[in-house]
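Hi team,

Filling in the usual template for the complex we talked about on Friday. All components are listed, including any nucleic acid strands or ligand strings, so the model treats them as one assembly.

SUBMITTER: L.P.
PURPOSE: interface mapping
COMPONENTS: two
RESIDUES: 727
SEQUENCES:
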Amino acid sequence: MSACCETPVLKPPAEPALPGALRTVVLIGPPNSGKSTLFNRLTGLRQKVANFPGVTVEQRMGLMAGVGRSDLTLIDLPGIYSLDPFSEDARVSIDVLRGQMAGTPKPDAVLLVMDSLHLTRQLMLAAPVLALGLPTLVLLNMTDLMESRGGEIDALKLARELGAPVAQISAVKGTGIDAVPLFLHQQTDRAAAKPLTLPVVGNAASAHSWAAQVSRRTGYRAPLSIEGTRKIDNVLLHRIWGPVLFLLVVVGVFEVVFSIGQPLSDGFGEILADLGNLIRPLLPAGWIQSLLLDGAWKGISSVLVFLPQILLLFLFIGILEDSGYLSRAALIADRVMRTIGLNGKAFIPLLSAYACAVPAIMATRTIENKRDRLATILVTPFMTCSARLPVYMLLIAAFIPNTFYLHGFLGLRTLVMLGLYLAGFVAAMTTARILNSSILRANDAPFILELPQYRMPTLRSLALRLVDRARIFLRQAGTIILCVTMALWVLAHLPVIHMAGGAASTPELANSLIGRLGHFIEPAIAPLGFNWKIGIGLLSSVLAREVMVSTMGTLYGAEADTHALSLQTAMHHDMTLGGALALMIFFAFAMQCTSTMAVVKRETNSWKWPAVQFLYMLTLAWIAAFAVNHLAMAFFR
Amino acid sequence: MSVLSELNVGESGVLVALDLPESVQNHLMHMGFVPDALVTALRRAPAGDPTVYSVDGMEIALRRETAAAVRVRDVEDLDRGVSEVLEAAP
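RESULT (copied from the run log):
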């Protein structure tokens, strides 16, 4: 019953290139007004996400293909309650609306979305937006819900009151969306828009009384609504059942991401490897083949394998967020999170980080408070992500005896693994507290959490969300990761050795540039119990932690005396127990992940924070590994 | 005269003023915490804090320290002339 599919596609106006023609349309509305759903519907999948220049505010742009107007660009502004320039989001919105945002064209028309379930409050945004004098269409969203719950609004009266056309829509169902192309079509041959005279609204209190008057004059009756939501909350926020269900949800998400996501990721990894092998015969043997397959393809694959897990995780976060439960989870978690200087909304990102820090850092977008968001981003990489697992598993299998305590209930290997998880968690919590009492003091921006009504998540919005996240992730893999992998490959294959007879060959790993780097850093890592080969592994794992395993495999496979041994036995030759434990703790703390650094750069819009984070985590990892190595030497000698 | 954080669950008050920095005040006002609005303490989070308040037909959770900066008066003192703000939260 989607109206966007029924609507006859509007023909573009006969002469679209008129000087006064429309080009740019802006979508604005308060948070939780259904703005994103509407944006997705209006643009279809033809959208791109970036940051506005110089700020961390996300910029979404798309062609309005969803209503047959691919000639128009739609810009989605951040969800805001007012145009008061207190928040970065509002300042960006004002600049865009006035055409003062660098790189963004001045908008020709505005679509203002409001949730008709809470119209009075949402009208407070309408006054300053309409006062800008741009041609504006007011869209009352969720009118179907409002009416079914006994609410009322006279849209015609409201249009007269506001001096702007008003349409009643349901972005979720797609009803009433036809009003948008109709409005845009009219704007094409519009007379010069006359600025609307509205009561100048100076402060929030007068804006509210204006909004209250308007909604009364237009016969607005708010729906009785929230009984259902309150009943659900009686259970989900119950003193006892609330936390119990919360834990069940958390464990459930965790469990599915690992038990279903891990095999999916493994299978996907095999497919990627097979693909590489399929292409291999098609390429001429030699350095090009090696660079493309052993360098670029392998490196990108090692990142791509996380895609299934990441999508699964975002599917859950999407369901939780769209249904309205995420706010409840934040409410339940807030008491605990604030003791370490974070807020309840940090909980989900930190949980996601057990799968991968990259989507977790992207998920911090739900934290509106910038300071809390930055603090969350900075501690997130300490959580034990799935990329650490291969390294832990290799080292545990090689160095930790498979002994059991308590009649076989508790294995030593499991204990070590749990210990590593705990180490990461404690480091994250401690770091959060340190941040709170040093560079990131809790500011006076309070924790204000809106609990939206429960809604059924729609498949469409979930799918669009996944596509969106996958796209960001893939772009990352396609650019930064690609460059770093190629660079590593080059470092491992230079200098070219000229053999007798003019034939060139690649050097032994020890003599390659990266091997020399390994030797170069050996003095720095020797106190931790690592030799130069581990050094190479550490260097290469800056790309991504699990690369360590394949690097060690290559290294030991290439050496004559360890060639025939399995990787585990080979490592035994080279390392003490102390060194192995130190290596594990090093991996627990160090920021060995280019993707994370890239996404932190993207989200904080500066290289400062990833640099600070990298150095802090490296220092901590070095000290901890040093301590562990020396303790182990003292105890197990 | 008291503050919002002193309301027990189920009790209501009429908002008088917000003793908060201007930016926070503005944010809260746009969420419905305007003078003369009727605010009801709906429930506490399982850990006892934050508390969910109903205002203007919305449910907003505030920590105790924030709620302690919101001055309210008893509902009985409610002036009929400002009842318009209650319409959305009957």
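MY TAKE: The helical segments of chain B are 22-30, 64-67. Residues 22-30 of chain B form the longest helix (9 residues).

Thanks, L.
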